[in-house]
């Protein structure tokens, strides 16, 4: 994967992915195969550290039609993980 953009001023509108390919051939939510022309939402959790964004290991590829359900559960999971550590205090 090649990430291109103006690195001296990294903003969401300057970030572009080229030649993004992987082993994902189907939607993470619907489990249906991707077809030519499908619109795909890419979802990942990151954390801002040392003037940059570090992405976690999970990068999910979801068809637009299925992303609402997936994102809803994904956000619930993230919120539960954030609450867990604070409960140990």
Structure in words:
The longest helix has 21 residues. It is flat, with a radius of gyration of 16 Å. It has one domain. Helices cover 24% and strands 31% of the residues. The strands form two sheets. Strands 1-2 form a two-stranded antiparallel ribbon. The protein has a two-stranded antiparallel ribbon with strand order 3-4. It has 89 residues and is of the alpha+beta class. The relative contact order is 0.15.
Please give the alpha-carbon distance between the first and last residues. Answer: 40 Å
So what's the oligomer here?
single chain
Q: What's the rounded overall pLDDT mean?
A: 79
Strand order in the sheet with the most strands: 1-2
Number of helices: 1
SS-based class: alpha+beta
Largest sheet features: 2 strands, antiparallel
How helical, in percent, are the residues? 10-25%
How is the topology of this model organized?
Elements: E1 2-4, E2 16-18, E3 40-49, E4 52-63, H1 67-87
Antiparallel strand pairs: 1-2, 3-4
Short summary of the structure?
The chain is of the alpha+beta class.
Features:
flat, two-stranded antiparallel sheet, 1 helix, two-stranded antiparallel ribbon, single chain
């Amino acid at each position: 994967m090649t990430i291109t953009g103006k690195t001296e001023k990294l903003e969401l509108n300057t970030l572009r992915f080229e030649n993004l390919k992987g082993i994902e051939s189907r939607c993470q939510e619907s489990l249906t195969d991707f077809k030519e022309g499908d619109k795909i939402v890419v979802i990942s959790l990151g954390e801002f550290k040392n003037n940059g964004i570090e992405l976690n290991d999970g990068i999910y590829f979801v068809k637009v039609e299925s992303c609402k359900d997936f994102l809803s559960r994904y956000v619930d999971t993230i919120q539960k993980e954030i609450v867990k550590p604070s409960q140990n205090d």
